[in-house]
Amino acid sequence: MQNQAMSSHTIPGALELAGASVIITRPAATAAALVRAVRRRGASVVRLPGSRLCAIEDADATRAMLFAAQSADAWIFTSPAAVDFCLALTGPFTRAPARQVFAVGAGTGRALARRGIASIVPLGSQNSEGLLDEAALSTPKGWTIAIIDAPGGRDLLAPGLRERGAAVSRIGVYRRMPPRLARRQLDALDQAAHPWLTLLSSGAALEHLMAALPPGPIARWQREALIVSSERLRDLASAHGFADVHLARSALDADLIETACSVLSRHRL
Asked: Residue 95: its pLDDT value, please?
């Protein structure tokens, strides 16, 4: 006869993260969907934004650059935030802002689609490397390309495209600033139940948090599981003393959560 009792290690499918504290490092402005998805899996959420997203300082000059770049062969949006801040400057486009529009990842593609802009999204890795692998960008010699992003971010696309013969300009439409962590956020982290599962998709967020957190929470954090969205972040986390680092397939919410569930299931064994 089949045993009807649930094993102590078995968690119902909808609550795979029950009992864990999931630390979300995305900026507050872009974290809402991930927070909801994690809570649906039964986790306690600790919001620990690693960056604040702010408008660019010289809006008039940036707006002029964007309108001038509409003669480019291609625009590349690097994040959903780049889409939002760009259109806050330009207003809705009555047509595509360039002959071809590319998105670094499916989330950015969806943000563009909501604004009526069709884009080419990587079929493989949902990142800059995946976009560079796309056939549509394999031979951009002679193209002019505008990359819509934030100043100071990782610059992999521009050098790669210039090596292929494209003329590339980067137009920063927003800024990633260090977070202003409130006492309540530090208290929530201090009181969070074990195990901790941190979801990380930004090197800037990790650098900001390592500079902002007191030594005690950092030492505790370094002993807990960190789920990262790229090999680059895995290397950066290791360099910052994190020993339990796990690589998700991409920065998409579903991929980060899937890896978190897998890590927690092994923790329960």
From this structure: 86
